[in-house]
Amino acid sequence: MRRPLPASGLPRLETDVEPVAEGWRLTVGEKDQVEAQATVGLLGTTGVLWWIGVKETARRRGLGRAMLGSALYFLSARGAHEVILYVDDASGDPEQDRTAANALYESAGFVQIDRLFSYQR
Length: 121
Ligand SMILES: CC(C)(COP(=O)(O)OP(=O)(O)OC[C@H]1O[C@@H](n2cnc3c(N)ncnc32)[C@H](O)[C@@H]1OP(=O)(O)O)[C@@H](O)C(=O)NCCC(=O)NCCS
Known about the structure:
By secondary structure, this protein is α+β, with helices and mostly antiparallel strands. It contains 2 helices and 6 strands, in the order E-E-E-E-E-H-E-H.
């Protein structure tokens, strides 16, 4: 999925930022009590949202949307003109249900630009 940046109109919150192999990890909460996390990277002027997650007991309270807003703002501030992400929703495993993530991304202006199908012989 893709959307242009900057993304106005999304809420934001204060996050801790640490460098990681993919780029940066944004965290809300304490080290042993992480509430929400996002991992982002930058490929030229294309931002990548590698991961976003909210602790199960903290979901549906706006934290995911605010974390997304913060991640997109972070990328814009570092020169990204667009942001892409991948949604792996093909496993059928309820642990990997991406219904919430897809609804969040669509409501935040992301549009599907391609779909990868994988097959096993
Ligand atoms: C996706 C995720 C980060 C959303 O976090 P959250 O804090 O619950 O999100 P919010 O409360 O900010 O909700 C934002 C929007 O997400 C959608 N959403 C959230 N939970 C949903 C659910 N259970 N079913 C359908 N839509 C849902 C809604 O569109 C919601 O907007 P609304 O409240 O105005 O209806 C969280 O569900 C999560 O961590 N999921 C597991 C990890 C994951 O799938 N990560 C994405 C990998 S691609």
